Amino acid sequence: MQLFDVYPLYDITPVKGKGAYVFDKEGNKYLDLYGGHAVISIGHSHPAYVNSVTNQVAQLGFYSNSIKNPLQQELANKLEKVSGIKDYNLFLCNSGAEANENALKVASFYTGKDRVIYFDNAFHGRTSGVVAVTDNDNIKAPFNQNHKATKLALEDTETLEEELKKGDVAAVIFEVIQGVGGLDEASSAFYKKIAELSKQYQSAIIADEVQSGYGRTGDFFAYQKHGIRPDIISIAKGMGNGFPIGGVLIDKAIEAKTGMLGTTFGGNHLACAAGISVLEIIEKDNLVENAGKLFKYVEEKASEISQIKKVKGRGLMIGLEFDFPIAQLRKDLLYKHQIFTGAAAANKNLLRILPPLNLQKQHFDTFFKALKIALD
Ligand SMILES: Cc1ncc(COP(=O)(O)O)c(C=O)c1O
User: Fold this and answer.
1) Which of 111, 230, 245, 266 could form a disulfide with 240 if both were Cys (CB 3.0 to 4.6 A apart)?
2) Statement: the pTM of the whole predicted model exceeds 0.85
3) Which keywords does the record carry (predicted)?
4) Measured between alpha carbons, how far is 125 from 342 in angstroms, rounded to an integer?
5) Interval between CA 101 and ligand 1 midpoint (Å)
6) H/E segment holding residue 17
7) Which superfamily does CATH assign the domain made up of 286-375 to?
């Protein structure tokens, strides 16, 4: 049987990971400045994480959500403590798309409304509701076309109010810093306006922190810098350091009803053990702080390279905008210098850097040295 062929693949087969590095089957060592799409938060094969996951699978890997699983509450408590957010409840699921899909459902149940506002260049996932609020027609099948979804431009408060005024908007969903779209971030004034208008017209606001959350930007959640309180926050990627786990943080004012949401695998024992271990390591090793302070160093190093026009993002969610399309540069970095980086869908000149949160200056020194050679 062949695999359903949907991914463009690099001709590399990683078989091992350690910290900020992965190793292929020939023993070549690669610096991972992409973290497998921003997933690797605490570094590959962190020993404490390996221990926790190993011990848990030896004990009990899975049982369904029909029994008590105290690990779920332990994860919720730890997340509250490490993130600093208060008065939310946690629903556990398995991926970013599923987190957003559930976030939209909760908003719709809560408001009794059915239309969703999203923004230019947004990416919220590939399942039916969330692909409908993703700005990429190539990944929407006819089946996905019938959701009530309205796309707006960031910073356009006037149209936002006109749309909310119509009274049928269940939610406004946004990535606080866009990932796939190319690292754009609206102003605090705009985020505050979304919050204010949503309250006025009884819609919910959903912060998609699937990529920007879990410490990546130097705050636990990227929205925390903007002085807003989302009704719903979706999380995934860095949460399990590669173990598939996602979640929805739901304001306590929104009441749960039995059967309102559900999943077979979500919140299973092994996923919780991975999630708890990630939070313990983020806390113990001050990884949020580490992510925050490295950005300045990257800006300094980038200023020495004339072809870099702009450094976008925050913390370790970085976009280097060049004055030319970077597809070939990315390949050179990978095949000639053994460095993984990422690209953006909406901006062909943007090189994305999403490394593990325990990266050090020396790794950026290696990167910028290689970048200079590649550019020459
Ligand atoms: C901001 C954002 N939301 C949602 C998703 C979807 O997550 P998943 O691929 O885990 O379904 C992604 C994935 O890249 C993302 O970047």
Assistant:
1) 245
2) yes
3) Aminotransferase, Pyridoxal phosphate, Transferase
4) 17
5) 11
6) strand 14-18
7) Aspartate Aminotransferase, domain 1 (3.90.1150.10)
